[in-house]
Amino acid sequence: MKVACVLIVLIASGVAFGSGVALPFADGFEIYAVGSAPSPPWERHYNAASIVTDEQAFDGGQSYKLTSAVGWSDSASVDVVFPDAFSYEVACRVQSGKAGAGQFEYDGGMVYNHNDVWFNDGGYITFHGTQVTPCALDTWYRVVVAIVGFCGEDATADVVVYDAGGSELGALHGVPAETMDDVNQCQFVLHTGSAEVGVAYFDSVSIAPAVGLPGTLIPLDPGWNMIGDTCPDGQPHRIGACRILACCGAYSWDDSVSGGMVQGTVYAYQPGAGYLVLGADDWFTEGRGYWVLNSSGRMLLLHVPYLELVGTYRPMWETEGTALGADVVCPVGDTVYLAASVLGDSPAHVEIEVVDTTNPSAPAWSCDVQTGGSSPNDLPTRIDDMEVLGDRLFSSPGCLRVAALTLVPPAVCGGYDDFVPYSVRYLGMDVQGDYLYAADHWGPLNVFSISTPCSPALVHAVGLSGYPHDVVARGDVAFAISTNTLSVLDIADPGTASVVCSSATGGKVSRLALNGDYAYVGTWDPPGVDVFDISAPCDPAPVLERSVPTSAAVSGLASADGLLFVAVPDCGLDVFDVSDPADPRFVMTYDTPGRPVHVAVQGRYVYVADEAAGMLIISW
Questions:
Q1: What local confidence, expressed as pLDDT, does residue 363 receive?
Q2: Are residues 499 and 486 in contact, defined by beta-carbon separation less than 8 angstroms?
Q3: CA dihedral 10, 14, 19, 23 (to 10 degrees)
Q4: What is the pLDDT of residues 433-485, one digit of tens each?
Q5: Distance between CA 451 and CA 434 in Å, rounded?
Q6: Domain total in the chain
Q7: Is the CB of residue 42 less than 8 Å from the CB of residue 35?
Q8: Are 537 and 571 in a shared domain?
Q9: Quick one: 297 and 312 in the same domain?
Q10: Region 575-591: what's the mean pLDDT?
Q11: How many other CB atoms are found less than 10 A from the CB of residue 298?
C-alpha cells in the first residue's frame, strides 16, 4: 500500500499558453476569481461592488463582472514582472459601455495604460488605439497579445482575436507597442471605462510568462522585509538559489547582491537563539522568521524544482492483450529502452520495448525486443538493470543477455544474439570500455569481456562482503555495494580486479549513484540515502558523511544538475537538493500514480518506471 505523499507545485504569476492558437475557451478565471471578488493575488481598485452571477457564466462556470459609472471605473489587477517578451490572453463579454485589459503602471493612485486591448471601443476591438476587428455587445471574444522588445526601444506586438468557437476574426502583426524602462509598480488589469455606465464580464485570463521560473513569489517593499515565521510553501529553500525580480528580468541572488538590489546578509530570528546571520549557502526553513533588506527588487522568488508530468507510456504484451508493468528505464537520445514484465500472478513474460520520445508528451511504441532464450526455462521473470554502449544493449534478467540493437532508426530492432547462464539474478550493472561489471545478487561481482558483444566472456569474479546489489565504474576504480558495505575496487586491469578497501553503510543497500566526489547509497533498512566522501577512494576508505532519511525504502537513484531523484516504491519520487553534495536537503516528494521502482535522468526530463502506471516522463 502506497503511503500518502504530497506533490507541492508552486508556479509564479502567469500561466503558459500558445499565442495565436485557436482553442475553445476554457473556464480558467476561477484560478483568479471565485465568488464575489477576485481571490489573491488580485487586488481591487476604486469602488463599486463586483458581482459574479451564474446567469452570465461562461462555459458552465463563473465569470468576473465589473461595473462602472460616469466619473469612475471598476478594476482588478495583479502584480507581475514583465520580461522583454511576454504574452497575455483574456476573454471578455461587454454588456454595456466598454471594457479593457492589459498591463499598466500604478503609481500612487495614477494609472498609466500600456499595450492594452479595449472591447467595444466605438464598436471595435482595439489594441493601443488601432482597430483589430468589429465587435458586438453581449458576445464573447478572446484576444491573445504577444509583446517583443518590451524592455528595449522598439517594442512590437502581435494581436489575434477569436470568437467563442476558436475561429480567428482579425489580427495585427508587428504593430508598434509601448516599452517601459523605469516603473514603480507593474500590474495587469481588467477594467471598465469611466465615461459611461458599463458592465463587462471577464474569463480565461492568462499572463505568460510573468517569469519563466517555478517557485513562490513574495512581494518586497523598500527596506527591511519580514518573510513570515515559516516558508510560505512549507518547503526549504537555499537562499543562493532564490531570484530577485525587477522590471524586465529575474536575477540570480549573487547578481542581485552585487548589483545592489538586496543585501547579501539575511537575518533569521529563532526563538531561544536570537538573531542568526545567514548567507547564500544557508536555507530558508520552517520555524524561523527571516529579514531581507531590499533596495530595488520587486519580488523575491523562492525557487524549488518544479516537477510536471509531461507524458505517460503504458507497455503492453500485444499478442496476449495484457498490460505490463514498467521495471527499468534506459534513455538514449530520443529513445527510451523500457523493460517491462507481467503484473501479478499471470504467466511470466518479459520484454524490452523501444519507445520513441521525440515528443515527450506523446511517447510512441517503436518495436519490441524479445528476451526469451533458447528454451522456456531461459525466460526471466524480471529485468533489473540495463546499459547501452554504442549499438548494443546489455540487460540483467535471470541470466545475463546481450541484445543487438540498431539504435538509429529506433524502429529497426534485432533480437537477443546470445546469453550467458552464469547467474540467477544480476541486480546492477555498468559498462566501461570493453568490459561489463555485473553485481550477481547470489554470487560475486562478475567481470565480462564484451569486446565481442554477442559473445561475452567471463574473465574474472570478485568476492564481496554480502550480497552484491550495484556497481559503478569510473576510470581505474569501481564502486560496488553489497548488503551493508560500500567497496572500492581496483579495475586498472579488469582481469585481476580486486577490492582495495571498504566501508560500512548506514543500512541495507539497494542502489548506488555517484556525484563528483561523493557516492550516494540508497538503503531499504532503514530507508534513506547514505552520503560518502570518495574524493580519495582508499586514502582513507570512503567516509560516511551522513545518512538522509527517505519516505520509504529506496529502489532507484539518479543525480543531475544539483538534484538527486530517489525512487521510493511505497511513496513516490523523493527529490533532494545536492548543490552541496555533502549535505543533501529534502525538497519534495512527487506522488506518482503507481510504484516507482527505477529512475533515470536525461536533460531536463526524469524517466520513471512506475510499474502498473507505466513509464512517466517528468520535466523539471
A1: 95
A2: no
A3: 70
A4: 999 999 988 889 999 898 877 677 889 999 999 999 999 999 999 999 999 99
A5: 5
A6: 3
A7: no
A8: yes
A9: no
A10: 82
A11: 23
Residue pLDDT, tens place only, 106-145: 555 555 667 889 999 999 999 988 999 999 998 989 898 8
Predicted local confidence at residue 182, as pLDDT: 47
Task: Answer yes or no: is 278 within a domain.
Answer: yes
The closest alpha carbon to 333, from 526, 560, 605, belongs to: 605
Q: Determine the structural domain holding residue 227 and report its residue range.
A: 216-302
- d(Cα 594, Cα 41) in Å, to the nearest integer? 35
In a shared domain, residues 453 and 389: yes
3 pLDDT higher than 70: no
Please give the Cα distance from 10 to 590 (Å, whole number). Answer: 13
Q: Both 231 and 198 in a single domain?
A: no
Look at residue 81 and give its three-state secondary structure.
coil
What does each C-alpha distance from 355 to 83, 327, 339 come to in angstroms?
Answer: 37, 14, 11
- Mean confidence (pLDDT) of the chain: 77
The pLDDT of residue 234 is 63
Residue 272 sits in the same domain as residue 372 = no
Phi, psi of 532 (to 5 degrees): -115, 140
DSSP state of 295: S
**d(Cα 386, Cα 393) in Å, to the nearest integer?**
7
| 257-302 confidence digits (pLDDT tens) | 998 889 999 998 877 778 889 888 787 876 678 899 988 766 787 7
The span from the CA of 402 to the CA of 429, in Å, is 12
Contact present, 18 and 601 (Cβ < 8 Å): no
Same domain for 578 and 432, yes or no, is yes
More confident residue, 553 or 81: 553
Q: Tell me, yes or no, whether 15 lies in a domain.
A: no
What percentage of the chain's residues is helix, strand, coil (to nearest 5)? Answer: 5, 55, 45
Is the domain of 296 the same as that of 200? no
In a domain, 573, yes or no: yes
254: helix, coil or strand?
helix
Is residue 303 within 8 Å of 243, Cβ to Cβ? yes
Please name the residue that has the C-alpha cell 561475452.
456
Separation CA 265–CA 205 (nearest Å): 38
Q: Is residue 439 part of a domain?
A: yes
**Residue 300: which H helix or E strand, with range?**
strand 299-302
Coil, strand or helix: which one is 433?
coil
Q: Characterize 314-341 residue by residue with b for buried, 16 or more Cβ atoms within 10 angstroms of its Cβ, and e for exposed.
A: bbbbeeeeeebbbbbbbbbeebbbbbbb
The 10 Å Cβ neighbour count of residue 53 is: 11
Q: Which amino acid is at 245?
A: L
Buried b (16+ CB within 10 A) or exposed e, 29-47: beebbeeeebeeebeeebe
Measured in whole angstroms, the distance separating CA 183 from the mean position of its chain's CA atoms is 32
Cα separation, 123 vs 359, whole angstroms: 44
